[in-house]
Specification:
Elements lengths: L7 H8 L3 H17 L11 H10 L11 E5 L7 H7 L4 E6 L2 H14 L4 E4 L11 E7 L4 H8 L3 E10 L4 H14 L2 E9 L8 E8 L6
Parallel strand pairs: 1-2, 1-4, 2-3, 4-5
Antiparallel strand pairs: 5-7, 6-7
C-alpha cells in the first residue's frame, strides 16, 4: 500500500531504503489486519498519517545509545513493528498477550522480511526476567497503570516512551507518585512532526534512574 504523495517525502526520510518494507506492512494492515480485527476498517483511509507515520516519528524520540526496545501491548505492531522497520539499528521485541495478534505479527514479519522478536506474554510476567533500554506503548492504558507494567522492564538509565494525546500533562501529574516509586525520573512531553502531519506525534518520555526511587 503506497504512501500518499503528500507524505512521501516524510516517509522516505523516516524509512529510507526500507520504505518498500513499510509499504508492504501497510498493505497487510489494510487487508488481513482489518479482516482479523486488528485495526478498524475506517482506519485504512488514514493509515499512513494517523498510524504508520505517527509511529515512525517516535524514532526521533529514542535516546541516543538505545539498542534494545520492547513494545508493550503491541497489537497490530503499532508502534513496535513500525519502529523496527524505521530503525534497523534497534533490536525490537513485541510483547502482546493475545494469540491471534501474535500469530498475525509473526506472519507479517516473516512475509515482509523483518527480523523482530515477538513474545506472547503480559508485561508483568516478564518483570525480573527481561529489561530493555527503552519500552514503548501506544493506546494501552493511562500513564499510572502503564508505568506499573512498563517501568520494571526499563533498564536503569533507560526510558519509557508512551505515545499519548492531549491529556499527556494531566496523566503525568496523576502518575507522579507511581513514577517516582518505580524509579521514574524526569518526565518530558515531546511533540514531534508539527507541520509534517495533520496531528503531530506526542510522546511522554520518562527517564529511569533507580536512584530516584523512594
Amino acid at each position: 500500500m503506497d504512501c500518499p504523495s503528500e507524505y512521501r517525502a516524510l516517509a522516505e526520510e523516516l524509512f529510507g531504503e526500507r520504505l518498500p518494507m513499510a509499504q508492504a506492512y501497510a498493505k497487510h494492515l489494510a487487508t488481513s489486519g482489518v479482516e482479523r480485527g486488528l485495526i478498524g476498517p475506517r482506519e485504512t483511509e488514514r493509515l499512513w498519517e494517523r498510524h504508520i507515520l505517527n509511529c515512525a516519528l517516535l524514532a526521533r524520540a529514542v535516546p541516543e545509545g538505545t539498542r534494545t526496545v520492547a513494545d508493550v501491548g503491541s497489537g497490530a505492531g503499532l508502534p513496535g513493528m513500525v519502529l523496527a522497520i524505521a530503525r534497523p539499528d534497534l533490536s525490537v521485541t513485541l510483547i502482546e498477550t493475545m494469540l491471534r495478534r501474535t500469530t498475525w505479527l509473526e506472519e507479517v514479519a516473516s512475509e515482509i522480511g523483518l527480523e523482530i522478536e515477538i513474545v506472547r506474554s503480559r508485561a508483568e510476567e516478564l518483570h525480573g526476567q527481561r529489561t530493555f533500554d527503552a519500552v514503548t506503548a501506544r493506546a494501552v492504558a493511562a500513564l499510572d497503570k502503564l508505568a506499573r507494567w512498563c517501568l520494571p522492564l526499563v533498564a536503569d538509565g533507560g526510558s519509557l516512551l508512551a505515545l499519548k494525546g492531549l491529556s499527556a500533562a494531566e496523566e503525568i501529574e496523576k502518575a507522579r507518585k507511581v513514577l517516582k516509586k518505580l524509579g521514574g525520573g524526569e518526565s518530558q512531553i515531546l511533540t514531534i512532526g508539527e507541520g509534517e502531519l495533520p496531528i503531530p506525534t506526542r510522546v511522554v518520555r520518562v527517564s529511569v534512574s533507580r536512584a530516584a526511587k523512594g
